[in-house]
Amino acid sequence: MDRIVSQLLAELDALHLSPHKVFVMAATNRADLLDPSLRTPGRFDKVVNVRVGNDVESRRRILEALSRKTRFSKDVRLQEIAALCSSKMSGADLYSVISNATMIMLRETIQKIEIEKVEERDAEVLVTNRHLKEAVAYVNEQKEAVTGAVRAADLIE
């Protein structure tokens, strides 16, 4: 790992010799684990903290952006789904809601085709509000399980 950090530092330092203006940006969820030498002046010395939008409208807008390519039924109300999502959900968690809702819908569609002998062309392939609610419940449950495990680990130490 030390060689990787050393190589990265050498590359960053070499950028100062470039006749062009070069900006290097990086992102991490764990800034506390960065090697301190990366945070020295001229390297990654500026920090911009991006917080999760914890209001319903922010979550709705994120869900909307994440689901642009998702085919929804007419009953879908993203405002209602956003209100069901925990305020602690990150963008990745909200993506998981959309992804899980799509998987729930696909499982149901496959079941209709295989078991109920519905023609593939007649099967409705749309994510519904119910699919999204199930996905929110699942993601909230998973997030709580992880949070609970972390709290338990803190107690053990």
Polypeptide structure, described:
It is built from five helices and no strands. Helix 2 (56-66) crosses helix 4 and helix 4 (91-114) crosses helix 5. Helices cover 53% and strands 0% of the residues. It has helices spanning 2-14, 56-66, 78-84, 91-114, 129-156. The longest helix is centred in the last third of the chain and has 28 residues, at 129-156. The protein folds into two domains: 2-39, no CATH class; 56-156, Helicase, Ruva Protein, domain 3 (Orthogonal Bundle), CATH 1.10.8.
Which SSEs are present, and which pair or pack?
Blueprint: H1 2-14, H2 56-66, H3 78-84, H4 91-114, H5 129-156
Helix pairs in contact: 2-3, 2-4, 4-5
GO molecular function: ATP binding; ATP hydrolysis activity
GO biological process, one term: protein import into peroxisome matrix
Domain ATPase AAA-type core: 2-51
The percent range for strand residues is under 5%
Number of strands: 0
Alpha-carbon distance between the termini? 27 Å
CATH top level of the largest domain?
Answer: Mainly Alpha
Number of domains: 2
Summed over residues and divided by their number, the pLDDT gives a mean of: 86
- The fold-level CATH name of the largest domain is Helicase, Ruva Protein, domain 3
Structural class: mainly alpha
Helix content: 40-55%
Question: What quaternary form is this?
Answer: single chain
What is the string of helix and strand elements?
Answer: HHHHH
* Contiguous uncertain segments of 5+ residues: none
